[in-house]
Amino acid sequence: MVKSTLTPMFWALTPKPKSPKQPSPAFANSTPLVRHKASVNPTTPPPPPPSSAYIHLPFCRKRCHYCDFPILALGSASTPDDPRLSNYVHHLCREITATKPHAHTPLQTVYFGGGTPSLVPPTLVSSVLETLRAKFGIREDAEISMEMDPGTFDAEKMREMVVLGLNRVSLGVQAFQEELLRACGRAHGVKEVLEAIRVVKSCGVRNWSIDLIASLPHQSSDMWEESLRLTVDSQPTHVSVYDLQIEQGTKFGRLYSPGEFPLPSETQSAEFYKMASRILGDANYNHYEISSYCKSGYECKHNFTYWKNKPFYGFGLGSTSFVGGLRFSRPRKVNDYFNFVQNLENGLVNSSGDGQIHGKDTAMDVVMLSLRTSQGLDLKCFQESFGSPIVLSLLEVYKPYVESGLVVCLDEHRKSIRVDDLNNTERKVVYMRLSDPEGFLLSNELIALAFGVIDSWNDCPSYQEAEATLKQEFIC
């Protein structure tokens, strides 16, 4: 998952717009359980049923200094038979069982996030997968991913996970320097990182990712370059690059202020981002999303669920689901979550909506999520769903940025269109994307411009006119 505390760099470099919806779905930091919606015609066709599920396994050995996630720190003396593990998984499976399925669509992706899911014994992971399979079904070719931390698994555990169906690993390396790992409060060192990489590769997991954090305290340009080059040498099929965010309530939040020493300046953070784009690009990694790089064919299918604004199930502590047009956040405290599960079983909670979606919300989601990716915004589909006036307004507001090279307009063959041609060829502009890396670096500001256009649009259609966007998954 794209962790909200380790957001892509563009969130760190510019002020956040007033109303962006974070694409990271794994869990939400907000307390409201319901996203309000506008009323629409009750005969409106429902959005497509979810085919992805996020599973939150909140266990960690200890809390890292930057972490504000909903976790349960077990301590270094915890063992696989720790009753806290089994008790939580028992409630998790109860939640899955009590959830009303939206049509019988087998899951195409399952993502175990946390926390440190690799602390959970394979027998308990098997229980979760079997509960999902019994409730929704899981396709034989489904992508089943797990976040795993160095030092929390060996070859035997990895092989057992593979037997269960695990076929994608997201390895939380974060850095290749001992001093940086210690400064972050990570429970592993470089020795454990190298061993984890060896184990993943030796157990036949071809689809695996290395996660890195930029802009750490005392992190130098040489350190960041070393981490990137050692990552390339390790030959993962995917790399995620996150920029450190300083969150209130964390140890880093008490020690540091963004942009001030020993944290890198905004200029240094931008240079880190450009360096990642250059080094990973030179190694034939496709920069397919603001914080994500991959070898050809190894995009994270589960994360595309979020970037395409498709419905998904979310289960577990603090997780968010998007079902029937409703974004629903579960409690972040363990006892509150257990009570929530009991209420769900008793019919006192409804975690899914009835297909009612507000047009402006949908339009903003589509723009923000699409512009995160190298594919960009499909203006033809957007026009079919929301009308040509808003597309023309977007082209007008972005014209200066097309001229400066931050925004790229493309025709149906994905060839660039010059700014001088925009006035006479609006219908030929089929795609709009941000340039890499300069446009991605300023994407928060650029997306905020689109939000301003949409927010001022008084005739924004409701779900009857927006349903094509969801049903076509934004692909014409």
Write the layout of secondary structure elements.
Layout: H1 9-13, E1 52-56, E2 59-60, E3 72-73, H2 83-98, E4 107-113, H3 122-135, E5 138-148, H4 155-164, E6 168-174, H5 178-184, H6 190-202, E7 208-214, H7 221-234, E8 238-243, H8 251-255, H9 266-282, E9 286-289, E10 292-294, H10 301-307, E11 313-315, E12 320-323, E13 326-329, H11 334-345, H12 359-371, E14 377-378, H13 379-386, H14 388-404, E15 407-410, E16 431-434, H15 438-441, H16 443-455, H17 463-471
Parallel strand pairs: 1-4, 1-11, 2-3, 4-5, 5-6, 6-7, 7-8
Antiparallel strand pairs: 8-10, 9-10, 12-13, 14-16, 15-16
Helix pairs in contact: 2-3, 2-11, 3-4, 7-9, 12-16, 12-17, 13-14, 13-17, 14-16
The CATH first-level class of the largest domain comes to Alpha Beta
| Morphology call | globular
Quote the beta fraction.
15-25%
Oligomeric state, counting identical vs distinct chains: single chain
Low-pLDDT segments? 1-45, 460-476
Number of helices: 17
CATH topology of the largest domain: pyruvate-formate lyase- activating enzyme
Number of strands: 16
Helix fraction by DSSP (H/I, runs of at least 4): 25-40%
Name given to the CATH homologous superfamily of the largest domain: tm_1862 like domain
User: Helices and strands: which structural class?
Assistant: alpha/beta
* CATH architecture designation of the largest domain: Alpha-Beta Horseshoe
Q: How would you write the strand order of the largest sheet?
A: 9-10-8-7-6-5-4-1-11
